[in-house]
């Protein structure tokens, strides 16, 4: 095995080195706070820069229950959007699928949280923990896997530091360097679409409904935020997305009013329009000896239905549960049999959601008459067949599949 890490280098020891201090990586650390395991988080950006992203995400009921289980939800909840209704529709087709809280007997159907609110709450929660350290800003530059441990090289202020860990976690996002160093292959594709994401303020009297409206150019998600604002994620073919980004504000709002069908009243644009290319990706393996991948490092999906981050939060809760159990039973937390339990649990569940979002995007971003007829029949069935409606709602809110223990009592 070749190593860029010198053999004689003094190493700092920890049980778990988490590469990536985004929401998924820090969620894992937060769950491990009282586990007795020594954790080091390595984040390339300064803490406040990592937290400063303006993006807001749809947060599923399951994610909220995981955060309740950690004990950070009461910090997050007052500052985020909450929705009691979801409306699913196909262009201007009159049959709208209406999901209500009564369908699940819950107070809300989901939440919309800004990146900085969630990440800052998590950072604060672990700040006083004696068993969690940060190397920040610190960039993982190499990982060498040995039988009993992994050596992680980290660039901190131009200097190379080294860590010895029983387990390395790749939580370093879609372009994961840890994944490529481990030569873990991925499958998937880039979509013909990009998302234009932005925030608006509106004058519609109520702001407790999330809309997913499908247009032949791509889906448009409208997610309520506090202060009569909404985060909009509008998928379009690349060229059209670029044009929408470049439009004069007045023309852009006019276009938006047409596509939201006047449901939001007067609209004011209150953020930049940011473009994200969209991809579907799943790793062939989530684990190898001394390594586990979580969040976007392991999988990425189309933003339709707002699932991506929620999958990562579920990965973190599942992996933490398995690691804590292994640690309490005196097992080696970096051994392949322990890590494979995580892969077996999460890989199939994630694949189902990746497939579901891909199906939604392809089935609805389409003007071919037979498909239009079938999908409108599908919407009618979903509206009128309660079991089908509840199944779809449970899938979207994270209540299908195996629930991590942390979320079971909330
Ligand atoms: C337009 C759009 C809308 C979306 N909407 C939603 C939604 O509504 N709901 C939802 O659930 N999901 C949504 N998603 C998906 C969501 O954004 C991602 O799934 C989520 O941000 C992934 O989090 P992560 O922590 O895995 O990765 P990231 O947020 O990418 O974090 C990775 C971290 O690792 C750090 N890092 C990278 N390389 C290194 C290195 N070598 N060393 C140290 N640190 C490193 C980075 O600085 C970063 O802080 C959306 C995505 C897009 C594009």
Describe the structure.
The chain is of the alpha+beta class and 410 residues long. Strands 5, 6, 12, 13, 14, 15, 16, 17 and 20 form a nine-stranded mixed beta sheet that branches. Strands 1, 2, 8, 9, 10, 11, 18 and 19 form an eight-stranded mixed beta sheet that branches. A three-stranded antiparallel beta sheet has the order 3-7-4. Helix 1 (23-31) runs parallel beside helix 6 (115-126). The model is unreliable at 1-9 (pLDDT under 50). The longest helix has 29 residues, at 336-364. The chain is built from 13 helices and 20 strands. The structure holds flavin-adenine dinucleotide (FAD). Flavin-adenine dinucleotide (FAD) is lined by residues 19-25, 42-45, 50, 57-58, 139-140, 171-173, 177, 195, 197, 233, 276, 295-296, 303, 306-310, 312.
């Amino acid at each position: 095995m070749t190593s860029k890490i010198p053999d004689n280098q003094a190493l700092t020891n920890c049980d778990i080195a988490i590469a990536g201090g985004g929401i998924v990586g820090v969620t894992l650390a937060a769950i491990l706070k009282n586990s007795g395991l020594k954790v080091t988080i390595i984040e390339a950006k300064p803490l406040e820069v990592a937290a400063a992203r303006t993006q807001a995400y749809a947060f599923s009921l399951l994610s909220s229950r995981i955060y309740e289980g950690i004990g950070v939800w009461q910090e997050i909840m007052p500052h985020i959007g909450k929705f009691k209704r979801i409306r699913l529709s196909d262009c201007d087709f009159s049959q709208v699928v209406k999901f209500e809280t009564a369908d699940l007997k819950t107070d809300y159907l989901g939440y919309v949280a800004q990146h900085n609110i969630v990440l800052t709450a998590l950072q604060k929660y672990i700040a006083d923990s004696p068993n969690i350290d940060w190397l920040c800003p610190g960039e993982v530059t190499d990982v060498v896997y040995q039988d009993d441990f992994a050596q992680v090289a980290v660039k901190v202020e131009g200097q190379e530091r080294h860590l010895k860990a029983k387990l390395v976690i790749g939580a370093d996002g879609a372009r994961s360097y840890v994944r490529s160093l481990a030569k873990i292959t991925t499958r998937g594709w880039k979509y013909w679409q990009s998302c234009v994401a932005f925030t608006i303020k509106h004058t519609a009297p109520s702001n407790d409904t999330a809309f997913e409206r499908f247009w032949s150019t791509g889906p448009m998600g409208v997610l309520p935020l506090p202060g009569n604002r909404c985060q909009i994620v509008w998928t379009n073919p690349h060229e059209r997305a670029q044009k929408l980004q470049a439009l004069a504000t007045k023309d852009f709002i006019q276009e938006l009013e047409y596509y939201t069908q006047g449901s939001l009243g007067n609209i004011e644009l209150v953020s930049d329009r940011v473009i994200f290319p969209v991809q579907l990706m799943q790793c062939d393996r989530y684990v190898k000896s001394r390594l586990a991948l979580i969040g976007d490092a392991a999988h990425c999906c189309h933003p339709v239905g707002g699932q991506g981050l929620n999958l990562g939060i579920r990965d973190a809760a599942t992996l933490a549960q398995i690691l804590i159990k292994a640690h309490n039973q005196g097992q080696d937390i970096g051994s392949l049999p322990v890590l494979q339990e995580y892969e077996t649990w999460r890989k199939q569940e994630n694949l189902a959601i990746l497939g579901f979002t891909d199906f939604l995007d392809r089935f609805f971003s389409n003007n071919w008459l037979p498909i239009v007829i079938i999908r409108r029949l599908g919407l009618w069935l979903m509206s009128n067949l309660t079991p089908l409606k509840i199944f779809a709602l449970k899938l979207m809110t994270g209540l299908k599949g195996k629930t991590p223990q942390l979320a079971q009592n909330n």
